[in-house]
Amino acid sequence: MKGTCLCGAVEVVANDAGQIGLCHCGMCRRWTGGPFFAVHCDDTVQFSGAALKTFRSSEWAERAFCGTCGSTLYYRLVPDGAYYVSAGLFQEQAFELASQIFIDEKPPFYALANQTPTLTGQQVFEQFAGGNGG
After folding, report:
1. Strand 46-48 vs strand 19-23: parallel, antiparallel, or unpaired?
2. Separation CA 74–CA 70 (nearest Å)
3. Taking the model in full, what pTM does it have?
4. Spatial contact of 73 and 66, defined as CB atoms under 8 Å apart
5. How do residues 74-123 score in pLDDT, each as one tens digit?
6. Is residue 131 over pLDDT 80?
7. Residue 127 DSSP SS3
8. From CA 86, how far away is CA 74, in angstroms rounded?
C-alpha cells in the first residue's frame, strides 16, 4: 500500500492490509477530532519526507504528523515498535472495520453501525501488560 499526507510532503509504503481498527480513547479523539481509524502495520512500514514530526504522547507511545499540513500519520508503541497508521493515508485501499478499542470512552454523540469485537480501556491495558499485543 502507498499513501501520502494531505499535502504530499510525507509518503508511506506498507504491506497490504485489509482490516482496520478503531480507537475511541480521549487522547486519539483529541488528536484526530474523532475516533482514530488505524491500520496495524508491521515493522517494515516506511515513511519518507522531511516534514514528518513526532510527539511522545506517553511513556509507551509516540504519535506522528506532517509538519506542513498537520495530517495524522501514525501511533507507534515504543516497547515493540508496532505501527498503527492512519487509514486515511491510503486512499486507494479498501478496508473492513475489524475491531474497536476503548469503547468505554466513546462519547454518546456518535454511533457506528458496524458490529465488531470491542475492548474497554482496562481490557486493552490488561492485554498489553500480558504481552499479548497492545
Report:
1. unpaired
2. 12
3. 0.90
4. yes
5. 999 988 888 999 999 999 999 999 999 999 999 999 999 999 999 999 99
6. no
7. helix
8. 6
The string of pLDDT tens digits covering residues 17-76 is 999 999 999 999 999 999 999 999 988 899 999 999 999 999 989 999 999 999 999 999
Side-by-side strand order, sheet with 11-13: 2-4, 11-13, 46-48
Q: Please state the φ and ψ torsions of residue 88, each to the nearest 5 degrees.
A: -65, -15
Listed in order, strand segments (DSSP E) in the chain are 2-4, 11-13, 19-23, 36-41, 46-48, 52-58, 61-66, 72-77, 83-86, 96-101, 118-119
* Residue owning grid cell 501511533: 75
